[in-house]
Amino acid sequence: MSKITVIHGPNLNLLGMREPSLYGSETLATINQRLEETIESAGHEFEAYQSNAEHELVDKVQSAIPDTAFIIINPGAFTHTSIALRDAFLGVQIPFIEVHLSNVDSREEFRRHSFFADIAVGSIIGLGPQGYLLAAQAALSRVEVA
Ligand code: DQA
Questions:
Q1: Candidates 17, 97, 104, 110: which one to mutate for ligand 1, based on the most atoms within 8 Å of Cβ?
Q2: Strands 122-125 and 3-8
């Protein structure tokens, strides 16, 4: 059994009411529940965490060792700004997938740069909540061969 941790960055607690034309109408609780079912029914441990604070997200990534085998993260706006969170991933060396609900490449120019894309196992963008489930499947296939 491996542990997969899903981390949601700032403002993702507002999913459901936040710019639904961009982010859809599903709440974070619904997304987490589906991830929990997917990961636990595959026989693995699931944990979800959300914070609006950069230092709390850094702390969460740091505290993921030694228990967490794989991280799925939507860093929200910190995607485009946070060298500190990038450094946390480089520090712990836990493999991760970056997820974005919206297609960040089709939006403002400043959303096109990610501080995570080049160090992630992969990125899933623009597929809404389904992106998290696809990331979970990819994470499961990786922890199962590990
Ligand atoms: C987001 C895209 C980011 O640019 C934005 O700041 C978010 C959400 C997404 O899931 O599409 O908060 O990460």
A1: 104
A2: unpaired
